[in-house]
Design a protein that fits this description.
Elements (H helix, E strand, L loop, with lengths): L2 H21 L22 E7 L3 H16 L1 H5 L1 E7 L3 H13 L9 E5 L3 H4 L5 E2 L1 H6 L11 H6 L1 E2 L2 E2 L2 E6 L1 E6 H6 L11 H11 L1 E2 L6 E3 L2 E2 L4 H9 L9 H5 L14 H14 L3 E2 L5 H6 L5 E5 L3 H8 L5 E5 L14 E8 L8 H11 L1 H11 L12 H9 L2 H10 L13 H18 L3 H22 L3
Helix pairs in contact: 1-2, 2-16, 9-12, 19-20
């Protein structure tokens, strides 16, 4: 067990013991028949098990939020949240899948944080408790308090299935000092892929041999994550698959081939490669950027606090809108990140205690804290009216870029929910790499990707008829 995990568990145990002392010691886990809110004379807190994937600065922020809840609302209502770091988002999904497939409710947590790749594993399970039901059971809570796009991002067949908590968009990160050296305006990052190609060609630098690249202009190979926006922003709103990227039911086929959206993107991306400034890096891109080995890269707003901390005074950091495919691609970007899902696990009847914790996380003040510590934008609209938020944005203008980009985007651009999501991620990445490095044609690349992704959906749908 690493020290970070150990400290998280220690914090959770500490607050668990404090709550037991305050409320009167007793068994932590009952038969599942007790009420979950405190009453006079209650002798045991309800323990809510929460699995998450936050590490580093994100993990520290989550630990602090859990501690604050346990010391306030939790103490008042007789609830103790036990946070358990389960590794990366894929690890959380894998462990959940094991319990769901074995139909072992007792192996499930009360709450679990998932990203888009894990939604297919839980969205149709009878053991998942749709957050919509929890919202409707509470007359004091309304979804109108939340940013509309985030609600849509976790809506399936018209029903909110997970609480959008760690919401993000994708940003362009760039080295302003490198821009200045290349004669580029550090206040004007590229807005289209054509401009990205131009900038990348000017930013690439070589060693004295004239061949070895010292600094790429831009680094990274597109995956599903980037394509959701680059496909989605075309024609106002477009999707990778039918059924609105799987939000209206199990997708059956890709539509980026028949609609020409992938071909449009690939033709523009080929120009970025032809500039000579593109580094086809598939890992450690952020580290390469911090080390000054690439001048631009794109990643989630959730990395902003970490990148700021890592860059320090090495160079002046800039962030900008994710470049559009072309000037006609006006849809903007999708909302990514993740959400928190509730499960029926023979603990916490009606998920009443779990709902109290979810409400706390979605509160304006909690969302402000989470935003400041991580870079995820506030989901609660009330956060934006807090004086502390205004002060924070004035002092930290980089954080405002993601919010402005979100407000300028069409909320109907959605993440894709499809089977074999991790395989699809690498299929797309490898397909684009092959096109660039082997000189394959655009249509050939589109057809290859369409074929394999459609096969994934066909196989899944044969086994999982709706």
């Amino acid at each position: 067990m690493n020290i970070h995990t150990y400290m998280k568990r220690t914090f959770s145990l500490t607050f668990l013991l404090v709550a037991m002392v305050l409320l009167g010691t007793g068994p932590l886990f009952g038969s599942g028949s007790r009420d979950t809110t405190s009453t006079p004379g209650a002798t045991a807190p309800v323990a809510v098990e929460f699995w998450h994937s936050n590490s580093g600065l994100l993990g520290e922020a989550m630990t602090e939020l859990v501690a604050r809840f346990n010391a306030t609302v939790g103490t008042e209502k007789g609830i103790v949240v036990q946070e358990i770091y389960q590794g990366k988002a894929a690890d959380v999904a894998t462990k959940l899948r094991a319990g769901l497939q074995a139909n072992r409710a007792q192996d499930l947590p009360d709450l679990a944080q998932l990203d888009a790749t894990g939604v297919m594993d839980v969205r149709d399970s009878a053991m998942m408790v749709p957050v919509q039901l929890l919202v409707e059971s509470d007359p004091d809570f309304t979804l109108d308090e939340l940013q509309p796009g985030t609600v849509l991002s976790m809506t399936y067949k018209g029903k909110l299935i997970g609480m959008p908590f760690n919401a993000s968009t994708i940003l362009l990160y760039y080295n302003k000092d490198a821009f200045r050296k290349a004669g580029l305006d550090p206040q004007r990052p590229p807005r289209t892929l054509a401009e990205l190609a131009d900038y990348a060609g000017k930013l690439v630098t070589y060693a004295s041999d004239g061949k070895t690249v010292v600094q790429y202009g831009f680094a990274g190979v597109p995956t599903t994550y980037e394509l959701v926006s680059w496909i989605g922003q075309q024609h106002g709103v477009s999707y990778l698959t039918d059924k609105s990227n799987g939000h209206d039911g199990n997708p059956t086929k890709v539509v980026f081939d028949s609609e020409g959206t992938l071909a449009t993107f690939l033709d523009e991306w080929r120009k970025v490669y032809a500039s000579g400034g593109l580094g086809n890096l598939t890992s450690d891109v952020r580290q390469q950027f911090v080390a000054g080995k690439t001048a631009m890269f794109a990643t989630s707003t959730s990395s902003l606090a970490t990148v700021i901390d890592s860059v320090g005074d090495r160079f002046e950091l800039g962030v900008g809108y994710f470049p559009m495919v072309n000037s006609e691609s006006t849809g903007g970007v999708n909302i990514g990140g993740g959400a928190i899902f509730a499960f029926e696990n023979r603990n916490d009847p009606g998920k009443k205690a779990s709902w109290e914790f979810l409400k706390y996380l979605m509160g304006a003040e909690s969302q402000l804290f989470w935003h400041q510590k991580t870079g995820y934008f506030p989901v609660n609209l009330g956060t934006y009216g807090l004086p502390e938020f205004t002060e924070h944005i004035v002092k930290n203008p980089l954080f405002k870029v993601a919010i402005d980009q979100l407000n300028d985007s069409n909320p109907e651009i959605q993440s894709v929910w499809w089977p074999n999501s991790y395989q699809a991620y690498f299929e797309i990445q490898n397909g684009i790499l092959e096109m660039l490095e082997k000189g394959l044609g655009t249509e050939e690349t589109v057809q290859k990707l369409s074929s394999v992704l459609n096969r994934y959906m066909d196989e899944y749908n044969r086994m999982n008829r709706e």
